[in-house]
Amino acid sequence: MTPALLTRAVCALFFFSAPLAAEGIMVDDAYIRSSTAKSTSGAAFMVVMNHSGADDRLIGASSDVADKVELHSHRSDDNGIMRMGEIEGGVAIAADEMHAFKRGGDHLMFMGLKESLVEGAMVPVTLEFEKAGAVEIEVMVDQDRKPNHGKMKHDKMKHDKIEHGDMKHDHGDMDHAGHEMPKD
To answer: Which segments carry the region annotation Disordered (predicted)?
Structure first.
């Protein structure tokens, strides 16, 4: 096979496989963190996009670095106290929609960490979907990430021009009984 023919064959392979890569479940901006090097729990955050053309549901997750991985969220109880707990029944992600797993909201809770989360390391995670099945991803350990500071480019934002008004920036009285929460 000549180099020119080989080049065309490789280009054709990428051209015809590109739409397949865009279909299905995609994950962006995934990272995991723990509150300290000796923590026995950690949390992962990411944006999950459903390009499959059909509604689906994230029903579970697993990783070799933890005894257990659960889908968690923060919810206010009857007294207005935020509590973290497992999301029963999973997280629905409609066709052509996305769901953000973010700090202070839905996230993947890693319990019983078997090893320390080392900055910059990649952690293998399996996301289990009702229809798409198992989706293997790699999640980077990023202990220093600030909330809402993903891959978004901030260089063109005029931070001094943003009006915050009466916006509250605290987390209130959150009760995380039984769980260590990663610190901001």
So the answer is: 164-184
* Distance, CA of 123 to CA of 4 (rounded, Å): 39
Burial class (CB in 10 A: 0-12, 13-18, 19+), 38: exposed
Q: Is 108 helix (H, G, I), strand (E, B) or coil?
A: strand
3-class state of residue 121 by DSSP = coil
pLDDT range class, residue 83, cuts 50, 70, 90: confident
Residue linked to tokens 């659960």: 70
- In terms of CATH, what superfamily is 24-147? PCu(A)C copper chaperone (2.60.40.1890)
Mean pLDDT, the chain, whole residue set: 78
Instruction: Report the distance separating Cα 64 and Cα 22, nearest Å.
Output: 28
**Whole-angstrom distance, CA of residue 71 vs CA of residue 43:** 10
Segment 164-173, tens digit of pLDDT: 444 433 444 4
Strand, coil or helix: what is 154? coil
Cβ(72)–Cβ(106) under 8 Å? yes
Which residues, 6 or more positions from 169, have their beta carbon under 8 angstroms from its beta carbon? none
Q: CB under 8 Å to 161, separation ≥6 — which residues?
A: none
Q: What distance in Å separates the CA atoms of residue 82 and residue 171, rounded to the nearest whole number?
A: 8
Cβ proximity of 31 and 139 under 8 Å: yes
d(CA 78, CA 48) in angstroms, rounded, equals 30
